[in-house]
């Protein structure tokens, strides 16, 4: 936690954690203002968690969520009124502190000179030159100011973004590339299933973003808030604009924690957990290890979601733990799936059903989690009946692993890049945008029908890298993505059903059946999941080494 002072009564900070509340109290702060909407990142505590900890410490906490890049004069005035009313001193935070500093800067228009505003924010470590120009321009952001220009701009520094940057660099080291991402940490999210099972340590799934950005690629530590495809530019938080010759968009997916009523108030407490958040996966392991019987629920929301197999992976590994410690027979396990099938590719269902039966799991299809009451330990589902009508189903639990509904990020859904459903509208083969020829996309936010997994991004990155260079006239031929996705279904500790498939659910094994039959649980597939895939991710995929991922080229 880095707290930066703007005035004697106001400081700003990047995202704070629950554990930071005690430090803020020691530093003398009496009030906290959060400017960050919930659910912007997979390691972000919801405001309710911060508010509960603040209240217990005797601090005031207020939520004034501001969408990145959309800080208005009205919100700035409301923030100024809050600061005047709250016990002082106040600390305000968002992802990086930029939104909070921006609101303060806008609130000082007419009170301080633009030079004083710029000097104060610069002394605190924030470059708000574009915001200051907006203030000087009577509240309107100048549209003709471009602060940077690159041959290729990549939006998103997750698995897809780092992989495509590395693949581009491996093909053409002279290429001018920039990655835009505000995060300090890069996560190996496929590892969180094993964190939730107590097999991996959470810390082993994290690296600093600075250590992952490829050498020679510029990292712009900021949030993209808007796209201007007609002028070949993106707008960053703080009103800065960056131009490009080619744009690659891969911001990941939004996990909507507010999509289940009451969930944010109880996450991490009352037996409510989720492996879809970095800091909650260890709580899953804690709950599973402590449970000695009762009712355990596992949920899966409507598709699409990141890694469709992850909800049941958590369930199988939990059941295996209970079987090993002798408490499975005392535990009622139920899987509430909003869909109509256990897995989308039928070839893998028989092997999974054997484990469902062996663990005594009660499958409930057509059930979508709508609300949860943590203190009462009650979950309410909406069940879709065969005739299309719906009914409400309520049940209790001793623990529940929740997978919330998921969407494309807000700034994607509101952009001209989105299709009617909110996803980036790309050709499923070339991954080129259907309307803007200088824009490509890959990863979880695209409109493609493949599984949203890291394995899919690993295959997509070389395709995009080649096609971007081809569009710039630097290589020949055209690469095509075939929809490959992979889901190592951890059915027990030591065995995995390795699902691999293409568009349309066509099975596409990477190994001969005599070596590894993906339709059967395998110890070799577990070794692959536990020992091979993590280094393949960190030292292969993220470094542009396209082992078993180099695309086949076709003439234009």
TrEMBL record:
Q: Name one GO biological process term.
A: sulfide oxidation, using sulfide:quinone oxidoreductase
What are the names of the required cofactors?
Answer: FAD
Is Flavoprotein there in the keyword field? yes
Matching entries from InterPro entries are given as: BLH_phosphatase-like, FAD/NAD-bd_sf, FAD/NAD-binding_dom, Prot-tyrosine_phosphatase-like, Rhodanese-like_dom, Sulphide_quinone_reductase
What is one Pfam family matched by this protein? Pyr_redox_2
Q: Which UniProt keywords apply?
A: FAD, Flavoprotein, Oxidoreductase, Plasmid, Quinone, Transit peptide
Q: Which residues form the Rhodanese domain?
A: 76-130
Q: Which GO terms describe its molecular function?
A: FAD binding; hydrolase activity; quinone binding; sulfide:quinone oxidoreductase activity
**Gene3D superfamilies linked to this entry:** FAD/NAD(P)-binding domain, Protein tyrosine phosphatase superfamily
Full protein name: Rhodanese domain-containing protein
């Amino acid at each position: 936690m880095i707290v930066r002072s703007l005035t004697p009564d106001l400081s700003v900070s990047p995202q704070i954690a629950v554990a930071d509340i005690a430090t803020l109290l020691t530093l003398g702060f009496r009030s906290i203002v959060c400017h960050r909407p919930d659910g912007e990142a997979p390691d972000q505590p919801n405001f309710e968690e911060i508010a509960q900890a603040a209240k217990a410490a005797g601090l005031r906490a207020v939520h004034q969520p501001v969408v990145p890049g959309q800080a208005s004069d009205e919100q700035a005035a409301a923030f100024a009124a809050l600061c005047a009313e709250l016990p002082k001193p106040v600390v305000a935070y968002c992802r990086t502190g930029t939104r909070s500093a921006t609101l303060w800067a806008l609130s000082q228009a007419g009170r301080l000179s633009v030079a004083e505003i710029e000097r104060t924010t610069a002394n605190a470590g924030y470059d708000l030159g574009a915001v200051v120009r907006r203030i000087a321009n009577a509240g309107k952001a100048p549209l003709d100011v471009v602060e940077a220009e690159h041959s290729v701009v990549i939006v998103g520094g997750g698995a897809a973004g780092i992989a495509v940057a590395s693949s581009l660099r491996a093909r053409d080291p002279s290429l001018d590339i920039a990655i835009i991402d505000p995060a300090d940490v890069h996560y190996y999210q496929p590892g969180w299933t094993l964190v939730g099972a107590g097999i991996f340590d959470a810390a082993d799934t994290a690296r600093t973003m600075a250590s992952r950005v490829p050498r020679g690629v510029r990292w712009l530590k900021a949030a993209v808030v808007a796209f201007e495809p007609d002028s070949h530019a993106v707008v960053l938080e703080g009103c800065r604009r960056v131009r490009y010759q080619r744009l690659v968009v891969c911001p990941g997916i939004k996990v909507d924690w507010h999509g289940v009523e009451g969930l944010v108030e109880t996450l991490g407490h009352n037996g409510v957990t989720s492996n879809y958040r970095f800091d909650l996966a260890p709580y899953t392991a804690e709950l599973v290890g402590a449970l000695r019987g009762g009712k355990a629920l596992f949920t899966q929301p409507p598709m699409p979601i990141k890694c469709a197999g992850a909800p049941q992976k958590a369930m199988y590994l939990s059941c295996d733990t209970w079987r090993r410690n002798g408490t499975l027979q005392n535990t009622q396990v139920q899987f509430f799936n909003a869909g109509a099938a256990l897995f989308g590719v039928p070839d893998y269902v028989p092997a999974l059903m054997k484990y469902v039966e062996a663990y005594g799991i009660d499958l409930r299809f057509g059930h979508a989690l709508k609300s949860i009451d943590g203190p009462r330990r009650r979950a309410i589902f909406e069940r879709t009946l065969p005739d299309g009508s719906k009914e409400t189903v309520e049940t209790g639990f001793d623990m529940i692993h929740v997978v919330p509904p998921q969407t494309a990020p807000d700034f994607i859904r509101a952009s001209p890049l989105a299709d009617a459903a909110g996803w980036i509208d790309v050709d499923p083969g070339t991954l080129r945008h259907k309307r803007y020829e200088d824009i490509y996309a890959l990863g979880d936010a695209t409109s493609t029908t493949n599984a949203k997994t890291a394995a899919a991004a690993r295959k997509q990155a070389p395709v995009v890298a080649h096609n971007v260079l081809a569009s710039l006239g630097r290589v020949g031929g055209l690469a095509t993505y075939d929809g490959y996705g992979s889901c190592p279904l951890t059915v027990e500790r030591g065995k995995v059903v390795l699902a691999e498939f293409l568009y349309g659910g066509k099975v596409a094994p990477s190994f001969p059946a005599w070596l590894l039959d993906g339709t059967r649980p395998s110890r070799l597939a577990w070794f692959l999941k536990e020992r091979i895939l993590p280094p393949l991710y960190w030292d292969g995929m993220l470094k542009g080494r396209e082992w078993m991922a180099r695309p086949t080229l076709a003439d234009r």
